[in-house]
């Protein structure tokens, strides 16, 4: 029992060596974008045509390492400023489905780059399509 606990602890420390630097870099990028990207640009781009705003919102949701609980107030703020419902759907879905750097690193490690790239492509396409469906139906 003690050997298993030591092994789990040592393995967890090895995983943290990979996850913590990646999470730090992702958080740094997100904070930099939040502070230095003017809100007017964000709201103007996400409020224009759905053919541009929905794929862009999907990519933003995937890239930005914001916590899940922070996505909803941001999405609500964007909605109040004129972003379409399809872009809001794509932003939230992109963040929830793909936007976890620690999970992505573990997936890459355990399942390989082919599985990661396949999931990235499929999820991006499906989230974007879902944004268009939400825009049309809602």
Verbal overview:
The protein has helices spanning about 1-35, 40-45, 50-65, 70-80, 85-100, 100-110, 115-135. With about 140 residues, it is mostly helical. The chain has one domain (about 1-135). α3 runs parallel beside α5 (about 85-100), α3 crosses α7 (about 115-135) and α5 (about 85-100) packs antiparallel against α7. The mean pLDDT is about 80.
List the helices and strands and how they pair.
Elements: H1 2-36, H2 39-47, H3 50-63, H4 68-80, H5 85-98, H6 101-111, H7 113-137
Helix pairs in contact: 1-6, 3-5, 3-7, 4-5, 5-7, 6-7
Alpha carbon gap, first and last residue: 55 Å
Structural class determined from secondary elements: mainly alpha
The beta-strand count equals: 0
Name the assembly state: single chain
Mean pLDDT: 80
How many domain regions? 1
What's the Cα radius of gyration? 18 Å
Helix-strand pattern, N to C?
Answer: HHHHHHH
Helix content: over 70%
Largest sheet: none
Q: What coarse outline follows from CA principal-axis ratios?
A: elongated
Poorly predicted runs = none
Number of helices: 7
Note the beta-strand portion: under 5%
């Amino acid at each position: 029992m003690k050997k298993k606990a030591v092994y789990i602890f040592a393995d967890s420390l090895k995983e943290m060596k990979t996850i913590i630097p990646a999470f730090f870099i992702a958080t740094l990028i997100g904070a930099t974008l939040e502070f230095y990207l003017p809100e007017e640009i964000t709201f103007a781009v996400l409020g224009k045509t759905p053919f541009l705003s929905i794929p862009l919102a999907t990519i933003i949701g995937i890239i930005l390492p914001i916590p899940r609980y922070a996505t909803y107030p941001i999405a609500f703020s964007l909605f109040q400023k004129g972003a379409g419902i399809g872009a809001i759907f794509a932003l939230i879905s992109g963040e929830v489905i793909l936007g976890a750097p620690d999970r992505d690193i573990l997936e890459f490690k355990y399942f390989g780059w082919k599985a990661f790239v396949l999931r990235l492509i499929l999820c991006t396409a499906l989230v974007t399509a879902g944004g268009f469906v939400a825009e049309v139906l809602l």
